[in-house]
Amino acid sequence: METGVHAESSEARRQPFLQGWRLVAVAAALAFTLLLLVRSFLIDVFYIPSSSMEPTYEPGDRILVSKLTTEPQRGDVVVFDGTGSFAPYVPGSPWVRDPLTTAGQWLGLVGADTVYIKRVIGVAGDSVECCDAQGYLLVNGQRSEEPYLYPGEAASEVRFSVQVPEGRMWVMGDHRLASADSRALLGAPGGGMIRTEKIIGTPVFIAWPAPRFGQAPS
N or C: which end of the chain has fewer CB within 10 A? Predict the structure, then answer.
């Protein structure tokens, strides 16, 4: 009789333990599913690896990007998928990613191979030209004041004159001498025009590093 009582007592202790782990597993699965939904449709995190958007964004910034606004406006900073435009023309872009790199990109710890951040200079219907006699970009014949430019830097050392077609945008980095942008694609298919359907979203917050924590600059 004592043996039976001991066995039943052990089983009773084991059942709550297993049920507790099941609840933890279900809660973890639900939390992960919610995170996937949020990052797929609402907001995502990206790491900035280069200096092409200085001084607005700096190398090492981790930014939160809202996916709710994908219709570009002139002057917006946008994050977009460069597949089919930038990505094939950047030397050394790996087509096969190792698992650690993929995980780091998902967590916003390293830069994504085909994701870029640039400023929208021209939208559908705009003419964009470099430059007038004083070195300013001309958008629809009007001088474009650009207070976000890297200090002491010219609007562009590459001369161009383009017309932006429907469904496209002309983008440039704020650090023009360090940015591979629409100017680098002038001789490529599409002529440097990025499809607006490739927009992922707009930066809304700098999450890291701590000294830069706060609302994303525009």
Answer: N
Active site residues: 52, 118
Q: How far apart are CA 68 and CA 89, in angstroms?
A: 29
Q: Where are the domains of the chain?
A: 1-41, 42-209
pTM of the model: 0.76
Q: How far apart are CA 126 and CA 166, in angstroms?
A: 10
* The residue to which tokens 């979203």 are assigned: 201
The residue whose two tokens read 């709710």 is 68
At 50-64, the pLDDT tens digits run 999 999 999 999 999
Q: With beta carbons less than 8 A apart as the criterion, state whether 216 and 62 touch.
A: no
Q: In terms of Cα–Cα distance, which of 75, 19, 67, 63 is closest to 41?
A: 67
- CATH hierarchy code of domain 42-209: 2.10.109.10
Tell me the C-alpha distance between 39 and 77, whole Å.
19
Cross-strand pairs, 3? none
